[in-house]
């Protein structure tokens, strides 16, 4: 579980004082398993959130991220844009890392299994996917490449992953998880290849849809969509698959999806562009490949916290083993029509 704890250290005051000209007080660190570190603090003009990027992006991607978030905000997506440094940049460089500052938005995360929260989530996903792309800069290299990496990699890449995991955390954990990763990779690649994935309807995508990244106020209104570290122009099924699993699941830590809520989420998130059968066929392989760790992410997490890496490898293996069964019924019902029309465009 995530929790805030006081952080009296000098790092945050130094970063925000030098880069942003702010004097923080009551600094707190968010405790969670993540390569990013996040703090919240109060200054004279209110509360802020400061993030130290654990997966630093290239300059071109950071420029795209900033432009995409501003574009999304201009088109009605509830998001807090990045605040500028004293020299006008959206990202600060300090203490050997990259930092981003936003206004802090108070509220609660999405509640697992809550139909009203799911409807609001579906609406905001559709809004992100409706953001026009004309004039946005090229995205460059997204620092989050998970299933897309595996669409372009063969089984030998899994051997190299194994060598890396053995080197970082020992052979025992790899032996416990390797079959799960190999099975998910084999099944997914039999159903989806890179060319077929890239041919699917493409939009602006958030990239990390989860209940913890949705903020609701006391009235149940969705007031902010957080964590745009995975924003990119890619097939929208990436967001739809992630949203299905992490927003319509039975509870935190579970990979079981509520059938009706999952159906409603996918239909609502499609907005005015009905789902194609090709998109529905891609949902399961997208999720299976998402649960196969990439070498880059393993290295990044190892550099941050080896204990978190061990937890992640076990969690990902559980997801790789079970996600197909968890979401297959929802996707299959939609593909068959489920007695509701019109649900789908023909491929």
From TrEMBL:
Domain Aminoglycoside phosphotransferase, first and last residues per copy: 36-257
EC number, as in UniProt: 2.7.1.-
Keyword annotations: Transferase
Keyword Transferase: yes
One Pfam family recorded for the sequence: APH
MF terms in GO: transferase activity
Protein name: Aminoglycoside phosphotransferase family protein
Organism: Streptomyces doudnae
């Amino acid at each position: 579980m995530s929790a805030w704890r006081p952080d009296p250290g000098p790092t945050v005051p130094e970063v925000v004082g030098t880069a942003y000209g702010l004097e923080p007080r009551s600094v707190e660190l968010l405790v969670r398993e993540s390569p990013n570190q996040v703090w919240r603090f109060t200054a004279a003009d209110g509360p802020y959130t400061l993030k130290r990027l654990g997966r630093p992006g290239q300059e071109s991607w950071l420029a795209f991220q900033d432009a995409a978030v501003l574009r999304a905000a201009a088109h009605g997506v509830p998001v807090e844009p990045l605040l500028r440094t004293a020299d006008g940049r959206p990202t600060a460089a300090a203490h050997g890392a990259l930092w981003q500052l936003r206004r802090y938005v108070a509220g609660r995360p999405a509640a697992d299994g809550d139909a009203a929260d799911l409807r609001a989530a579906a609406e905001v996903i559709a809004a992100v996917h409706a953001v026009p792309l004309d004039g946005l800069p090229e995205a460059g290299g997204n620092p989050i490449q998970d299933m897309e990496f595996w669409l372009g990699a063969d089984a030998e890449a899994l051997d190299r992953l194994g060598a890396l995991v053995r080197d970082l955390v020992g052979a025992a954990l790899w032996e416990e998880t390797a079959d799960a990763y190999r099975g998910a990779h084999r099944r997914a690649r039999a159903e989806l290849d890179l060319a077929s994935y890239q041919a699917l309807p493409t939009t602006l995508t958030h990239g990390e849809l989860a209940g913890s990244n949705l903020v609701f106020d006391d009235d149940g209104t969705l007031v902010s969509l957080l964590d745009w570290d995975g924003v990119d122009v890619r097939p929208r099924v990436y967001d739809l698959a992630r949203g299905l699993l992490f927003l319509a699941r039975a509870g935190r830590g579970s990979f079981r999806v509520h059938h009706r809520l999952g159906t409603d989420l996918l239909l609502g998130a499609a907005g005015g562009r009905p789902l194609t059968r090709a998109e529905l066929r891609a949902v399961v392989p997208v999720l299976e490949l998402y649960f196969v760790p990439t070498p880059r992410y393993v290295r990044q997490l190892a550099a941050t916290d080896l204990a978190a890496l061990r937890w992640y490898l076990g969690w990902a293996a559980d997801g790789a083993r079970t996600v197909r069964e968890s979401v297959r019924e929802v996707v299959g019902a939609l593909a068959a029509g489920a007695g509701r029309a019109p649900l789908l465009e023909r491929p």
